[in-house]
Amino acid sequence: MSKEEIRRIVEGYEASGMTRRAYCEKHGIRMTTLDYWRRMYQSKPKLVRVKVQPAETGAGFILVLANGRRIESSWSFADPELSRLIRVAESA
Fold it and tell me: In degrees, to the nearest 5, what angle opens at C-alpha 79 toward C-alphas 77 and 83?
């Protein structure tokens, strides 16, 4: 089974609202296999798309995460520091 197929099965289970047993019977897989695949995908950090917008005051920035959260700052960052801040925000 390909990684894409495994990912679809895991995401399908999460969205199904079914019990593990029922979902596994429907798809012909063992519950231990589903559990292993879920752990495999849950242990990986999820990246989120971010958009950096200049602050309205002209100094600093507003970092808007894909989930709608905003980080606003009047600090100014050198490019490497801002890049590091974005990587940290994406990993949260």
Answer: 95
Helix (H, G, I), strand (E, B) or coil at 35: helix
Residue 78 Cα distances to 15, 81, 82, 90, angstroms: 42, 5, 6, 18
C-beta separation of 37 from 24 below 8 A: no
Q: Which domain holds residue 63?
A: 50-91
- Tell me what pLDDT residue 84 has: 78
**Bridge partners, 73 (sequence order):** 61
Torsional class of 50: left (φ above 0), alpha (ψ -120 to 50), beta (otherwise): beta
Specify whether 31 is located in the same domain as 61.
no
Domain count, the chain: 2
Q: Tell the residue number behind the tokens 């990912």, with chain if given.
A: 7
Residues of the chain with pLDDT under 50: none
